[in-house]
Amino acid sequence: MQKSLLCLLIVTVYAASAVPVPSEYSEDRVYPRYIEFPDGEGNMHTVDLEGEPDMELLDEIERNPANNLYLLFTRRNPRNAQTLVINNANSITSSNFNANHPTVVIAHGWLSNQNTDINPTIRDAYLNKAETNVIVLDWRRLALSDYYTAARGVPAVGRGLGQFLAFLNSVTRQPFTSMHLVGFSLGAHLVGNAGRELGGRAARITALDPAGPLWNYNSNRVNPNDGVYVEAIHTDGGYTVGGLGIGTNVANVDFYPNGGISQPGCLTNICNHNRAWELLAATVSYNHLVGRLCANNTQLTFNNCRGAELRMGNNDLRKWGDGMYRLDTARIYPF
User: Fold this and answer.
1) Do the domain assignments include residue 4?
2) Is residue 18 part of a domain?
3) Is the pTM higher than 0.85?
4) One of 138, 209, 226, 236 is an active-site residue; which one?
5) Which residues form the Lipase domain (predicted)?
6) Looking at per-residue confidence, does 10 or 119 come out higher?
7) 108 catalytic residue (yes or no)
8) In the chain, how many domains are there?
């Protein structure tokens, strides 16, 4: 009798462990109509996911990508930006832009601007690492609108960025294979659309905790074809309604630090969400975080991935890979 019970217990445990975990990393998550979403300063705002978009603003954004600012920083001007203007070759040729150095574009998220923490943090990491053209995209004209409108307008801003980079290429002859597009939250989908505008020719796209609300089944979300190599870092993709990130595979390589749902030292979704860009900046400086390839979601959830290793983040423009990776980090910088 005892032997039979033991066998039954073993079979039950084995069966339970063999069942894939469907919810944590699923596109099937349903958001309520009203959610809380943070601005670039970490302040929470109530968002109506069924709201009416500002069509007048969307039409203007569609017509005029010059609404957005392209702010250049180099080691010659690490703090004081030079403004590059689409269709104004002199703004580029008279600047410190150097076509022999790689270019990194940074796109912030909702209710943010050029001064939001993500921009100086990633900018300084790249400039301290190597000679780089860092271009901060300030798309506040749309980003400061309500979330529903901003999300609707992201593809147009992305196309505008792609057109700007095509113009930059025509003026400087810098190849697209020297360009790395980095975007956070809504900005992650934005740079995906920019890469799509360039026909997937940008060397690399890094999507930092791509926004989840309104994007689960959105054909305009970032995808693996948007660049030569597309990487996503998921830090707040929880199955609860509080998760701000999309929490599902969207790239050639999807990294899930600490499982991709909550981060060490974080007690809020805002902290989890922002950790994505903090981790990227740290890896640009130290290139020290290494993921292991996961065969399935169960391995990812229970932290027993045993596949090939791949370094997360960093500034490598010749990076390549495929699949989803897990790694664990420390609580504080450099993690």
Assistant:
1) no
2) no
3) yes
4) 209
5) 67-288
6) 119
7) no
8) 1
